[in-house]
Amino acid sequence: MRMIVPTLILALAACSPAPVAPPNASEAEPAPIESGIPPAPTPSPTPITLGRVTEAAAAQVIGELRCAFLSDASDLLLVGAGDVDKASRATAVVMRGATPVLLTARAPGGFDAMAQGGSFTDAELTASITRGAPRETEHEGSSHTATLSVEAPGSAPVAIDGVWECGP
Description:
It contains three helices and eleven strands. It is mainly beta. A hairpin with an 8-residue loop joins strand 4 and strand 5 (91-96).
């Protein structure tokens, strides 16, 4: 009888299914947990609001010759001034709402560089003029179609079409 028990155990072992290995954690991805709370909307940046440049604000820019950006609606939105001195930087002013913001040209070049367009900046705001096609003028200065682009951290950028006029 001793031989029957080991033979029986071997016979039963041969008929049993092979042991199944536990599932590998890398093969089975965990099911995502769905939240019933919708995600919070991402706030849209507030657009920059420019006001018309006042005479008092325009008087703050320094330079012997001036340029002005007028929107297509004829609103004076930027006034710049510069000297005929390639080493100097032109200055400009815009009104952020009702507050004047004094800006300095990013690059030297004085009035001549400013008349070509360019960028003006301070710690919080950048205003750039992109000059387009020339326009006829009734003065000895220059006039071009242009776009005024204004950017500030935390605000939506603004682009305004208009005219860039420069002269004495």
